[in-house]
Design goal:
Layout lengths: L1 H13 L25 E11 L7 E3 L6 E12 L4 E14 L2 E6 L5 E5 L4 E15 L3 E12 L2 E14 L4 E14 L13 E17 L2 E14 L14 E15 L4 E12 L4 E14 L2 E12 L26 E13 L3 E13 L17 E11 L1
Parallel strand pairs: 2-6
Antiparallel strand pairs: 1-3, 1-19, 3-4, 4-7, 5-6, 7-8, 8-9, 9-10, 10-11, 11-12, 12-13, 13-14, 14-15, 15-16, 16-17, 17-18, 18-19
């Protein structure tokens, strides 16, 4: 849906691990055992631009796809010697056209039915985390709100961590909930639900081990149960199950290579759900220290997924039952290449980065008989600044 696509875009931009607006701080991690010593304020701007749809793949509508601008503000501060507070605010504006259905031309080639290019929306996201620090443990409570023209979400969660074995080992975990309401707009010619609800519950656990003075590993597990209205009201003939169980496991390895004065980051994630989708993600990054004040970070990501059980390559008209031609439920693969520069000062940090994302059915591990023509490609540029005092 339009609301979901913008939410997912923002989540991708802010790297939220749980897929719940406002709960990025609940990702499994090794939390610090003391409040921040200094107050840090941050600002980030991200510009996300999808490539126009190829003219040969367009059945009707606009070729122009989404452009999204995101402004993010953050504050991290200590309230006392035991409590810390973080506040986050994001404003997202978007415009463009969205795929609505998959049809065929006279030769039988699949084509995309697009909306007009007049789709526009604005999204506001606010969240706050209060954390208590003890000698070897932390406990945090997070509350969040996300709202746009046709979508609202209230979220909350509790997380904690325990460090032991001379601070070499850390276990963490938590639970998060989100209560969402979608109220689709009703343009001429469409019949959509006036208002629908959906809920999600996520539980997660993580383990971090410091192996040596220059290496560290981390593993995490998460499970999410979604229920309610999970279909996309902005697509034609889209009927999805009203429940979804999502499971994910990830492993991360960090190693500082002294001879190169650089650190290698390797992440792997496997995901599966009861809709029949299974995916694999491999992330590689190289943090190269140029000098004491500058770092360059090239990165590469590979992603592949299978299709949902009810996915159909073509939009089924006048049929009943669960079905969807949404490209996000189709089998495909994607590669992302990026580069980021990070500059450091005594009390500030600045970063500038760019990424290029390309998706294709040929990139998938499994063979694909009929590729979805609505697969997206995009460019993302970001700049961020932090100041501590």
């Amino acid at each position: 849906m339009k609301a979901n696509s913008s939410s997912r875009a923002l989540l991708a931009l802010s790297a939220a691990a749980l897929g719940i607006p406002g709960l990025a701080s609940l990702a499994p991690a090794a939390f610090a055992e003391s409040p921040p010593e200094r107050t840090t304020v941050s600002y980030a701007y991200t510009q996300y631009e999808e490539d126009d749809l190829d003219a040969s793949k367009l059945a009707v509508g606009s070729r122009e796809r989404y452009d999204i601008d995101v402004h993010q503000l953050g504050l991290i501060t200590a309230l006392s010697d035991r409590y810390g507070l973080s506040l986050n605010f994001a404003r997202e504006t978007m415009s463009g056209a969205s795929p609505q259905a998959i049809s065929t031309d006279v030769q039988g080639n699949p084509q995309v039915v697009m909306s007009g290019a007049s789709i526009g929306d604005e999204r506001l996201d606010v969240s706050s985390t209060l954390r208590r620090y003890n000698e070897d443990t932390t406990v945090g409570v997070t509350l969040g709100y996300s709202g746009e023209d046709d979508y609202t979400a209230f979220s909350g969660g509790v997380d904690g961590s325990l460090t032991f074995n001379d601070r070499l080992d850390t276990v963490s975990g938590g639970i998060a909930v989100s209560i969402d309401t979608v109220e689709p707009t009703q343009p001429t010619g469409f019949t959509r639900p006036e208002s629908e609800d959906k809920d999600s519950l996520t539980v997660f656990a993580g383990y971090t081990r410091i192996l040596t003075s220059v290496s560290q590993i981390q593993g995490s597990l998460s499970a999410t149960r979604k229920s309610g209205y999970l279909s996309d009201p902005y697509k034609l003939e889209d009927e999805r199950p009203d429940e979804r169980l999502q499971l994910a496991a990830s492993a991360r390895y960090r190693h500082f290579i002294e001879v190169a004065n650089a650190a290698a980051h390797v992440d792997y994630r496997i995901y599966g759900d009861d809709w029949g989708i299974m995916s694999h993600t491999l992330d590689l990054a190289w943090y190269q220290n140029i000098n004491a004040n500058l770092q360059l970070v090239p990165s590469f990501r590979y992603y592949t997924q299978g299709q949902a059980d009810f996915y159909e390559p073509l939009t089924s008209i006048n049929t009943t039952g669960e079905r969807s031609s949404d490209f996000r439920l189709s089998p495909y693969g994607a590669v992302t290449a990026g580069i980021k520069a990070i500059a450091y000062g005594y009390d500030w940090k600045m970063s500038v980065g760019a990424e290029r994302y390309v998706s294709d059915a040929d990139f998938a591990i499994e063979s694909v008989d009929r590729p979805n023509p609505a697969l997206v490609e995009f460019t993302r540029i970001s700049i961020g600044f932090e100041y501590s005092f």
